[in-house]
Amino acid sequence: ITAAADAWACGAAGLPKPWQPQKPVLPVEGMRNVLITSALPYVNNVPHLGNIIGCVLSADTFARYCRLRNWNTLYVCGTDEYGTATETKAVEEGLTPQEICNKYNAIHTDIYRWFDISFDYFGRTTTPYQTTIAQDIFQRLLARGFLLQDTVEQLRCEDCQRFLADRFVEGTCPFCSYEEARGDQCDKCGKLINAVELKHPQCKLCKGVPVVKPTKHLFLDLPKLEERLEPWLEQSWATGDWTANARYITRSWIRDGLKPRCITRDLKWGTPVPLDGFRDKVFYVWFDAPIGYLSITANYTDQWERWWKNPQQ
């Protein structure tokens, strides 16, 4: 309190000179370097006030605080553009997925500019850097034995000549008999659904009746990480600022045992899988989208690794 009173008495003349980082903003030796991201907003709709308050505004407030503290700060964000929801929105509006992304990326950009959100860079995930970095991470996982192949039963529409991703299927919920349940979740009872469990399934694209057929997919072999993850979590819980809810959810995953997680989808819109036997598939958006933070930074500066692979600064 005394220090604050003394600083106030000195007036503006006593303030440190504002830090003006070079462009692009890069880590500086000897300074506190802060990289800030917001959760990437999904591109298939117009953002509303709740979206902005939920993630963008809090990060923007913190970025402004960091700059006032004269910390060397980079704040990046961008639209999350791959996945089934983009394809379904494109079908609804009679546009291509790329046209949908271009349309809504421009809308998002204008809205955040109107709110004066202080991004240093606002990008998107449909870029060559996204493909390069995501495929590189995939190849590293493959080389280290953290991927496995498995065959799963999936609905296929013979009329459309394609396996149907979760949101391209509707039918009757096997739990509550709601007649408009999606292939991933029932909006009435809230239960998660495997699309092949739906009663009276129907292809959303042509209204035809799909059939169950086997298809090969790639999985993250998460059980291989359990022995290394548990001691890391114990150390992180002891030294970090985890919320009670985050600890509880993480403990439940570990207690139940990690399961292999599918990272590929039978879609056209997404980052291509660079492996023979899977080149007609794309990466599941939840494998692909978090890499968007890296690729958006890479589109801002070709020295992006100085932010993402530089723990000493």
How would you describe this structure to a colleague?
- With about 325 residues, the protein is α+β, with helices and mostly antiparallel strands.
- Among the domains are: about 20-140 and about 290-310, HUPs (Rossmann fold); about 150-215, Beta Complex (Methionyl-trna Synthetase, domain 2).
- The protein is about 35% helix and about 20% strand.
- The chain contains 10 helices and 12 strands.
- The strands form 4 sheets. It has a 4-stranded antiparallel sheet with strand order 5-4-9-10, with no helix packed on it. A 3-stranded parallel sheet has the order 1-2-3, with helices on both faces. A 3-stranded antiparallel sheet has the order 7-6-8, with no helix packed on it.
- The chain is globular, with a radius of gyration of 23 Å.
